[in-house]
Write a structure and sequence with these properties.
The chain has helices at residues 6-15, 23-50, 58-67. The two termini are 26 Å apart. α1 (6-15) packs across α2. 71% of the residues lie in helices and 0% in strands. By secondary structure, the chain is mainly alpha-helical. The longest helix is centred in the middle third of the chain and has 28 residues, at 23-50. It is elongated, with a radius of gyration of 15 Å.
Length: 68
């Protein structure tokens, strides 16, 4: 079961130009978004640990995006 709500992902897709989103596409978007967030979190966590912190900060996320 996905953690991200499908309705939220569909709403984001529509805000970015999608007129309609099929249920299979919405499910695929959720899977890909969750995978991207997981990888981004892993990298941001690695950066936070490297800085001697246990807490991920926005700067860690920004750096993780740049390194992805």
């Amino acid at each position: 079961m996905a953690d991200l709500p499908i309705a939220a992902v569909v709403r984001i897709a529509k805000k970015n130009g999608a007129e309609r989103v099929g249920s299979d596409a919405a499910a695929a978007l959720v899977v890909k978004a969750e995978a991207y967030i997981a990888e981004l979190t892993k990298e941001a966590n690695r950066l936070a640990q490297h800085a001697g912190r246990k807490t991920i900060k926005a700067e860690d996320v920004e750096l993780a995006v740049k390194s992805a």
